[in-house]
Structures are given as C-alpha cells and as structure tokens.
Amino acid sequence: MGAFAFIAWSAASHARTDTPLFDGTARAVLSQIVSSEIANGRVPGAIIVAGTADGVLARLVLGKRMLRPHVEPMTADTVFDLASLTKVIATTTAIMQLVERGKLDLTTPVARYWPAFGAQGKAQITVQQLLTHTSGLPAEPPGLGVAAQHRMKPAVLLRNIASIEPVAMPDERTLYSDVNFVVLGVLVARVSGMPFDAYCRRFIFAPLGMEDTGFTPDPALSARAAPTTADSHGMRQGRVHDPLASALQGVAGNAGLFSTAADLARFARMLLNGGLADSEGATPAAVRRARILRPESIDKMAVPLTADATPPWRGLGWELDAPLATNRYRLPPIGAIGHTGFTGTGIWIDFVTRRFLIVLTNRVHEANGGDATALRAQTLALLSSGIGPVTPRQIAHALPDARDALEQAARPPAANGPVRTGIDVLAAQQFSMLAGMRIGLVTNRTGFDAHGERTVDVLLHAPGVTLVRLFSPEHGLDIDADEPVRDSVDPSSGLVVHSLYGETRRFAPGALDGLDALVFDLQDAGVRFFTYETTLGYALEAAAAAHIPLIVLDRPNPLGADRFGGPSLDAGRDSFTGYLPLPLQHGMTSGELAGLFNEARHIGADLRVVLMEGYLRSMRFADTGLGWLPISPNLRTLSALDLYPDVALLEGGNVSVGRGTPHPFEWVGAPWIDGARLAAALNGSRNDARFEPVDFVPTESTYRGQPCHGVRIKRAQSARVPGSLGVALVATLHTLFPQAFDIAATRDAIGSAATWQAIGRGEGPDALQILMTREADAFRPVRQRYLHY
C-alpha cells in the first residue's frame, strides 16, 4: 500500500485549539479505514483533509495515485479530476458572483440570457431552477452518445443542448442533471463576456490563491495528476474523465475542474469565513481577505430551495446535509452543504460546527471501477463522532434563513387514509369525555391528529377542556434525546413538560394533584421492550393512586395487531424495558395493552379507551394512511421499525445495531465481525431476508468512532415466527464468533431463559421455533380477552 503521512497540519499559527479534529486514536482509525478500502480494491489511494474556519488541522495521504501504466505514490500535492465538484466550486460560485454584481437574476428565465435555450418549451425555466436541479431537464443530453458528442464541435453540441426537450415541468421534482450545469457554464461566459474557465481563474481561483486549480491542466500539473481511466489516446492524466465535459474540450459547467486538497481547503475556509479569502499557505502573500462571495449568497446555498416537500433537499448548487455531529443522522439535513464527484471526490462544509472535510480519490482508476462511497461515509462518521451533539436551535442560529425549513421538517404530516386515531375520534365527539375537566397529557411528537396538529395544541384549544400539565416519556417531548431528559417548557403552550425519563421514570408524588383526568397519547412500537409501554403502565398506577381516570387515545400497532409471538419475558424479570411478561411482539394496540396491564397487575385504574375508527388488525402502519414521524431517535423509518424487534435482541451486547448510522436496526456490525462470512451464513439459512456485507463507523452508542464490519439486512418477507430472524442473528453470531460475541448480554432482551439457553446449546432453528411457538400459544387466550378490534 505504500508509505503514508498523517500530519496534524497546523498550517496557521492562529488555528483554534478548542476544536480538535481526529485525535491520536481517531487518526489511527482513519488510517485503518483508508488502508482497508485500498486493500479491498475500492480506491488506489486517498487524501483526506479536515479543518475549521481558521485552518487545516489534519491531513492524511495514503496509497497510490497511479497503478498503471506504472506506479506512483499518492502525494500531498496530487491534482485530482474533481468531476461534479466543478458544479459547486466553479459554476455555482461564478453564478452567485454575477448575481451579486447585478448581471444575472436567479428568478429570470434562462432564455433572457441565451435566447436559443427557450426552444422546446423551456422559455420559463429560470436560473435558480438550473442551480437546484428543478428545471425538468434530463440528466444527460438524450440521443447523444459519447461517440456522437465527440464527433461534434463544441458549438454544435451546445446548440443541441439548447434545443433539448424537458422531461418534467419546472419545479415538479428534483432531477439531478449535468445539462443544467452545462447551461449555467454557458451563462457565465455569455454574461461576463469571458470564457468560462478564464472567468473562474480571474474571479475565484486567483483571489483565493488556488494556484493548482483550473480547467485543462498544463503539463506540469498533469504530471502530478491522479489518472482516471484510459481511452484511445492513453491514460487520462490531466484530461477530464467526464464524457460531456470532454466533448466540450475540457471546459464545462458540470465537470472538468482539477484541483488539490490544499486549494479546496482554501475554498472551504472562504465559505466558513462568510465569503472572505484568507492567505494561509498561499502565494503571493499579498492575496489577503479578498471577498469572493457575500454572506447572503452563501446562506442561499445552505437552505432548502428545491421543489420537494420532504428531505433530501438542495440549496443553490449544493446538496444539503446535517451538521457534522454525533447525532447528525437524527437531525434534519440542514446546517451543512456538500457534494460528491463521480471520480471519487467529496467536500462537506458545516456552518454549525464550523468544520470542513475533503475526501479525494481517483476510485475509477481501479480495474473494477472502484467505489469511494464507503470511504466517504466512514470518514464523515469518524469526524462527526468526535464532535458532540447539535440541536435544531443551533442550526437556526447559524443559518437564520433555515428556520422555516426546520419548522417544516418538525411539522407532523397529515393523514390521507381510512383510519382515525383516538384524538380524531375524541375531537369528532366534541371532547365530550373531557368536558369541564382539568387534564394532564402524556405525549410526545407522535401524538398528533389527522391534520398534523399536535395533540398538545388540539387539547389546549379544545372547548370546555383545560390542559394543565404535560408529561413526556423517554426521548422527551420532541423525541430528540437519547439520554435522560430534564423537565422543560413547551414553547408553544408555555406548559411545563414533566420528564418521565429523568431522575425518576415514574410520576412524582403530587404530579397529578388538581387534575380531573390523565390523557395518554403515544405511538407504540408493538414490541415488548419499548419503554412507552412501561410508561403506560406507570400512568395507570399513578391515575389509580390519584383516583382519576386514565384516558388512552388509541393508535395502531405499527407492526400489525394480527401477529404475535417470539421469545416471551419470563415472570419475575419485569423492568423498565419489560412491564409485564409478554412475547416479543404482542400484537396489541396501546388501548388493548392498557386493559391487560390494568387487570394483570390488579391496578384498578378507571381506564377509558377512545377507540380508533376504520382500523383493522391486519393493517401495518403504511396501510393506515396516517402520517409517520420517528417514534424514537433511532426508529426513524418503517423499514427500521420492521426489523426492530429482531435486531434489538442484540441490544446490550458487544454489537452495534446501527445506532449512530443512517440505518439503525438495518445494519449490524462490530470490529471483530467478518461481514462476508456472516452474510454468507445467514443467507444460507434464511429466506425471509437478504444480508449484504457492510462497513460503517457509528457516530454514537456502541463502538462510537470505531470501524465496524457486519451486514445490512433487507427484509424479503415476513418471518415464519415473529422474532425468529433476531434469534437466528444471535445464534449465528454465537456459532461463528463464540470467543468474541457476548451472548450473555442478550439475556435480558431475549427475555425467555428457555430460548436463550437453547441458543447457547446450539439448538437448531426448528427446536427454537417450537419453543417460541409454545410460549406464544400460552399467551393467546390471555391476549384474546382484551382485544377491541
């Protein structure tokens, strides 16, 4: 793999010391990650640079930049074909400069500046729609293959592009398109009166001191360029890889830019410094504090401007992303901007934590095409894992223009299906059950009505009802905390939110004094160890002690209320993650569980359940038409929820279940797992899911900041027995890695001593299925007594 250098590059004596990046341990981990990607043939080498607004703080140079026709080592000054990074480094910046100078208007039709472009129904497409990929233009010029493009003169190719027919209406959807940025490159030349490359050199690269950046590199720069692939003229070294840009003689708005890590770091610092260049490491030294962009232009790059109502979003030119923080995967994708390039490049700039990351590879130089996806993702995660959490309030402070988008991301979605939940039925009854009452409410963001209004706000304005107190379960009212939560104040209602997951997890003495009823509205997960169920049990106990009714506003079992089973919790092992001995999946709604809890524990609460309308037991959540919100920080999608009862059987053990990754409960891994071996074993024994090897770095929780190897799980069909997939995961890990896997740590989640011991003895799947079926059969008559639907 060759020698490498990893340097804490202080390049500026004024670099802040209170924002460390990649400490000694993390540097070793990063080297391990990159070395693994090189060894697996995904990239020949890489340069990674991380820093803050004040300077570069860490740099890694590893592997080779050339493998053929001869071998050359990767060096810090290697020049890379940036591919689509051209769109943001050169084209977007140039367009925004021209907007600032009054030469372009984002809302003006492109045809005003390039009349020929107005053909084929494109007369109303605006400059902004090109920048945000909402123009409706196709990804590539249709009917113009690579060979055909290269036979054309650039002027002819541009005439053909001007006559392209849209494939969608403007602002109908986001469609990433190289054509958009070829057109933008043309606009820069037409409006400025200069060739596109000359404009960028004069107004962007020279003022920034980016001496190694430009189009069509000269022989000296080409000699230290990382080559991509070969063509009929030989290896592309210093010649653009992108076929469209190549047909335009290497100068285009979509691709063609070459640069180095040091130059890109200067560009990133400029954006973090509000558009001002600094001269760190640049020559001549006279290059100081030139203004490249205005702060308001940068803000427009970092806020959602696309047609889509839900993420992922795009700003002007850039892709939007969450800040580089431990909880980045639980945040809306606002606060940072980034872009990747086909050749294996990537850049991310975070306006909240004031950091940037650059990953440069020439992954296409590998014989099989290579793949920089895992390297980029793991490097981002490693950097994020060392930074700490970020709140939406911090994002709004850093980017005030993003507040509307943050509010939109937090707003509950409306329903569009047949089911009406308890809060909607209660409202249809004009809240008669609560007339004249002072009430408390146990809820969080999952409590909302068919119109997307929070249950808090619905009850706050309900006629004849006085909402006095709020209580929140684990994760808090906003479901954004993965740790104990303190009491707080709900800014909308002004009410105190009493945490039921802080110093105590029960209702404090006197917490219900002065109330006439306690209302409960939470979306359950349908799984035995989900703590909202224990909070329901504690609410029953507290209401009974206060001699007031508990009113449960019923919601669906999202996994379906027709299926139940899996290993059952043994009697006497109740805890906050197991209020009552139940199978792994109980197949009951919250209202039904409340009835079971009330009688089985002899609580004697005055329980009143507001039943749903239009609900069938066989419905999965997607069938209900109800709006979906994450029901916990790591249960963000229905696919994750579907796997949650199985994969969570590994919780508590020395295995990451994907917390702190984009796919919690869909990825399983650990540093000691052989992902390919585990995937092969599971694929050979299961037909209800597919398993693929995956490498990842969790930003939080188990193995935070450590490379993990494991499998990604894709459900193919429902398991024969609920929980059987999870039991198979535990059993397979125990069989393959008996010395490394801590099977003892799975005892509490599995719940059943008989099942857990059978796994430990190496019992086969048939024997394990018989055990779980026996336990489910014992629960069947008990469950039946409390079903409402």
Automatic annotation (TrEMBL):
Residues 439-638 form the Peptidoglycan beta-N-acetylmuramidase NamZ N-terminal domain. Residues 32-378 form the Beta-lactamase-related domain. Residues 643-789 form the Peptidoglycan beta-N-acetylmuramidase NamZ C-terminal domain. It comes from the Bacteria. InterPro entries: Beta-lactam-related, Beta-lactam/transpept-like, NamZ, NamZ_C, NamZ_N. This is DUF1343 domain-containing protein.
